[in-house]
Amino acid sequence: MKKLLIAVTLFIGFHSLAQDTSAKAKALLNEVSAKIKSYDNISIDFKYSLNNASENINQETRGNVVLQGEKYKLNILGATRIYDGKTLYTISPDDEEVTISSNNTEDEDTITPSQMLSFYEEGYRYAMDIVQNVNGRKIQYVKLTPIDTHSEIKYVLLGIDAQTKHIYNLIEIGKNGTKTTLTVNMFKTNEPISKTLFTFDQSKYKNYYINRLD
Fold first, then answer.
1. The pTM is what?
2. Which residues pair with 159 in a beta bridge?
């Protein structure tokens, strides 16, 4: 009976702690979301890495993206992706091909550039995680676990600069053992951008094969 009471007491204590850390995590994410939504546009330079030890995969690359609402222009792995809010254009100079699609993602578990700074607002449980000191910056991690048990994502760690409330990095752990990490190297806001930045000009790609998926 005594052991049972101790177990119940511990359970209540851990349950209260879980609720507390969940509330703190949600409050912090709300701060981040509000800060991001206050900007007209965001320009990011980032490093992207993908690792899977069992498959002997170890890739690293750099890229940049400009975001304005749902629209974005992403440069990565030699290709450019332009999303104008309705249509996604993927331009591959190596293949001399442009793929046109109304879908902003090929996979429901994929975190697209336009969702990168807000994907966590739906479909996850939250919990405060570790704090790290990165070059004098206090980075608070929030652990996000998908509510959907069928998700290919095991969990996501979102690193947040405690002072600026900007996202420092995103670490996604897949159920297949794949770890993808996106680290923000440069974060600028409200930069002057061209009115045609998110417009696809087909006349620039006359010799390209146009692959329409819709």
1. 0.78
2. 141, 169
